[in-house]
Design brief:
mainly alpha, single chain, 7 helices, 162 residues
Length: 162
């Protein structure tokens, strides 16, 4: 009798534990475990998963309505104006001073990814000797194009006479 109790009691405890875990959904056993909750799924997802029969439940379509006339719209807020003005000529002069003090090899690396249309106005305010060395170190076709752009830039007459 003692041997039988030593076998039956552990089996009952283990079986009860597994049954309890299945009822709580911790272990999936068909017929015992509860069905998975589907809260939060959209109707299309529920239909795709076969969670309801589309013959019994018809999805409702909401009609579009215009917003009520009493809804006030937010006034357009302009971003604050900056407290400075951009002077491109002053910026070019400061950069020219810096570039004039650099060696040509470094300038070639710096200007390699500059667009020719952006580089020409900058070179137009630099020291001619430095520009000549830089253009002489460039590919001939690029140097030719930039030279033409420098000529166009130098021919512009601004309102302040310079």
């Amino acid at each position: 009798m003692k041997k039988m109790l030593m076998i039956i009691i552990p089996l009952v405890l283990i079986g009860g534990g597994i049954f309890g875990a299945a009822k709580m959904g911790m272990v999936q056993i068909p017929g015992i475990s509860p069905a998975k909750k589907t809260a939060g799924l959209y109707d299309a997802d529920k239909e795709a998963l076969g969670l309801y029969n589309s013959d019994k439940i018809e999805p409702t379509v909401l009609e579009e309505t215009s917003p009520p006339a009493t809804v006030a719209t937010q006034p357009t807020v302009k971003p604050p104006e900056p407290d400075y003005q951009v002077d491109i000529v002053q910026g070019r002069k400061k950069l020219a001073k810096l570039w004039n003090s650099m060696d040509v090899a470094t300038l070639l690396r710096i200007t390699a990814d500059w667009k020719d249309e952006d580089l020409a106005p900058q070179l137009a305010v630099m020291e001619p000797e430095k520009v000549a060395l830089l253009l002489g170190s460039m590919d001939a076709s690029r140097a030719s194009k930039i030279s033409k752009l420098i000529q166009e830039e130098a021919s512009k007459v601004y309102g302040d006479g310079g």
